[in-house]
User: What shape does this take?
Amino acid sequence: MAKIQLEKIRELMKTNPDILKYINQDPEIIERELKKDEEYTKLMKSEELDMDKEIRDTLQNWIISYRKRLLDDFENREDVTLSIQDFRQQRIEKMLKKNPKFILRNHLAQECIKKAEEGDFSMIDGLLKVLESPFDEH
Assistant: This one.
């Protein structure tokens, strides 16, 4: 949704809080999208990042492309009865199933090897337990 649309919805919410029921929107989503847009605008104007124009344009194009992709995914969802909140939650659950919370890093493996060479296998046992279920909280 465009920034101007979000801002108009925000204004309508002030005078008629029930308006969101009619357009099937959540006030938190409206505010979150406006905040994202503000952060994006701040990033694009930031001189502290010292990005050259090419990098800034690339980043801007990627963000626009990604936001369009998210909107397309929602508009073309299989279950059209899903609200945007449920669709978002479903998307998050899919990502969590595909992206592990833990990935073995070389420095951890090296430390395990070092301790094992000294006869202490406790770190290997702990690391092995985590590696057996990298998608779970530990």
Q: What stands out?
A: Residues 112 and 125 are 9 Å apart (CA to CA). Helices lie at 3-15, 19-23, 27-45, 53-75, 84-98, 106-117, 122-132. DSSP finds seven helices and no strands in the chain. The chain has a mean pLDDT of 83.
